[in-house]
Amino acid sequence: MEHIPFSVGNEGRQVFWNAEHFELWLFLFTFVALGIFAYGIYRRWQMWAAMGKPEIRWDDTKERLKLLWRDGFLQVKTFKDPYPGIMHGLIFFGFVVLIFGAAFDATEFHITEPFGVAFLRGWFYLIFSFTMDLFGLAVLIGVLMALHRRYISRPDRLSYRGESDSTADDAIALLLLLGIIVTGFVIESLRIHVTRPSWEVWSFAGYALSKAFAGVPAETAKAMHAWTWWIHTFIVLGFIAYIPYSRLLHMITVPANHFMQNRKPVGTIEPIRDFENAESFGVGQLEEFTWKQIFDADACTKCGRCQDGCPAYLTGKPLSPKKLTQDLKTYWLEKAPTAVMAKKLADEPARWPYLGKKWPILNTVDFILDFLLAKTKGVPAGAPAEKALVGEAIELHELWACTNCMYCMENCSASIEHVPKIIAMRQYKVLTEADFAPELQLTYRNMENNSNPWGVGSHLRGDWAKDLGIKTLAEDPNVEYLFYVGCSGSFDDRGKKVSVAFAKILKEAGVSFGILGAEESCCGDSAMRGGNEYLYQTLAQANIEVMNGYGVKKIITTCPHGYNALKKDYPHFGGNYEVYHHTEILADLLAKGRISLKKSMDGVFTYHDSCFLGRYNNIYAQPRTILGAVPGMKLVEMERNLAKSFCCGAGGARMWMEEEGQRINNTRAAQAIEVKADVIAVGCPFCLTMMSDGIKDNKKDEEMKSLDIAEIVWKSMDLEEEPEPVEVCAAPAE
């Protein structure tokens, strides 16, 4: 069988067939394109390095390489959404195969074949040809899908409040990709039309397209081939050179961001370490972010997945995680050139930089570009921006609209970390400028004075349990578990019913547990996520001192917010415990046969995934396992569930703040109404309150109700009616 090496764009008996005499020019133009590419990356590197505090994101290399393989190459995060996942997968994997195929072809011709070593022969070549055409067609389909999505179907996630955020850069990137593939197939088809090998039917796309040139004389086709070859070449080289200066840079930044993912537990907030000596707290200037937090913004592809499920955005609030990230990027791009030049001047203040160094021409050009981009000379390091980060570049309403639900981070295909940035900027407003909502001022004062958001006397914290025979650790510290009740379970009327039901289940199952009673303090989650890090640390350290004093090893909570704080944030201050959510304990008790569900709970139930239970801690199965064991229950799922569940609206200190416009909890309750649920089952006291209010606001309180899973289990155990807890006023103290 005759051998004709193949690659998209370079076909023939030789690598270039009809264009072999262009080889020298090709190498020259390739060198220029690669030089432009390298310089663009170098300039971007300077911008990345010019701003931000130090942060180590290259430790644990083995695990990071696994993340790079999983999310960077296998595209696991990208495939979570079918249409854009398939679209991007076709383009990405198609180009990977085409690039390696072309490199393999060229390498054989230039390096191995002169030594008598060749692989593209016989059946191997036919399979190679078929594969290259197949993946070239995959890229073409992917690009057409992208063009349709961006310019025809135009989903909301690709805009902001109806205004498209598409730019000329988006169109150029897609047209370059389209041009590479189309011209590559045209080159192949013209070569097949002229040479007419019978076995090139294996190059099925080029073979089919060659029929379009029937009747074209061979010499004319060869001339067309040469011109198309040059067009294809310049598109490819232009594509390479354009990467660092366009959205195509995400080919580099996104894999890098996957490699540099936070290896700490999901949702962990790094504490402020030095309150005594710090002049300001949180992040009030761009330079106070870490370099990785700034790099995040450059990795954003504007895909809008974060916005697509953001409860604040979908209920008309000013926050869009995508817009916030892009606003940070715009602000960084405004400041970075000045910062780069200032850094160079600081490094060499005594003379004009670079002129006497090893590469004087390149470095002089580099310095002149710094000067032109910065629009100034001799700018001191750390010069202030023309506008403030917090309040101008990022509007305050955006910061305070966030519920910390983590939808953005969970569903971001570029591993961007939105929530820690928002909390850091909140910290600046609360701790440095004392500028925050009046409702939070009352909440924080109540937490300071009585260690709970309602301001109820802390000495009443254990009164809900006084008729249940539950001992405090002061009375008997020799128990297996501490039941950390939390503020809602201690003071809120609905929360107390959950505490009673769960405590009675534990007693019935023979679980060894106790409570802290009046010695328990608020977990501090709302203070921390509301920006009051000082108050949070005060509350956390008080709890840790008490718990460690009693030698606590295992803790159970009914509140996912307390669960997450105790499990992930308390270790920063020496609070290291095994922490369990009550749904984990209930599922385990059922599995071991220590409790049994007897009473039928007829009706349609739907389960609402708490953000701090699901996305923060991956507890999805246990609540559903419990509900699935209840006799008579029909369990249905809302449209938004599991990792894409819709927030109740109470996280991130939003529980204690007024909400403008459409209420998030009403929207979530409406989603439960859509599936005709009789009961919304929850595993969180915040969600319980918000869902109950949402049912009322949707005027369905006579038909629907919201119950905690512990209440459902206790009712289904059918032992006795739970006692009414002692009433304690839970109205906020003025």
Task: Please give a quick description of this structure.
The chain is mostly helical and 734 residues long.
Keyword list:
four-stranded parallel beta sheet, 734 residues, disordered N terminus, disordered C terminus, 27 helices, mainly alpha, 5% strand
Overall pLDDT: 88
Assembly category: single chain
User: Total helix count?
Assistant: 27
Strand count = 10
Helical/strand content category: mainly alpha
Terminus-to-terminus distance: 91 Å
State the low-pLDDT regions, or none.
1-15, 349-356, 376-381, 725-734
The major beta sheet can be summarized as: 4 strands, parallel
Description:
With 734 residues, the protein is mostly helical. 51% of the residues lie in helices and 5% in strands. The protein is built from 27 helices and 10 strands. It has helices at 23-50, 61-73, 82-112, 122-153, 168-195, 204-210, 218-242, 250-259, 291-299, 305-308, 311-314, 321-347, 360-374, 396-401, 407-411, 419-432, 438-450, 486-491, 493-509, 525-529, 533-549, 560-569, 582-591, 621-628, 664-674, 685-697, 709-717, and strands at 159-160, 163-164, 481-484, 513-514, 554-557, 578-581, 603-607, 633-636, 679-682, 705-708. The strands form 3 sheets. The protein has a 4-stranded parallel β-sheet, with helices on both faces. Strands 8-7-9-10 form a 4-stranded parallel β-sheet, sandwiched between helices. It has a two-stranded antiparallel sheet with strand order 1-2. Helix 3 (82-112) packs antiparallel against helix 4 (122-153), helix 4 (122-153) packs antiparallel against helix 5 and helix 25 (664-674) crosses helix 26. The longest helix has 32 residues, at 122-153. The chain is elongated, with a radius of gyration of 31 Å. The N and C termini lie far apart (91 Å). The model is unreliable at 1-15, 349-356, 376-381 and 725-734 (pLDDT under 50).
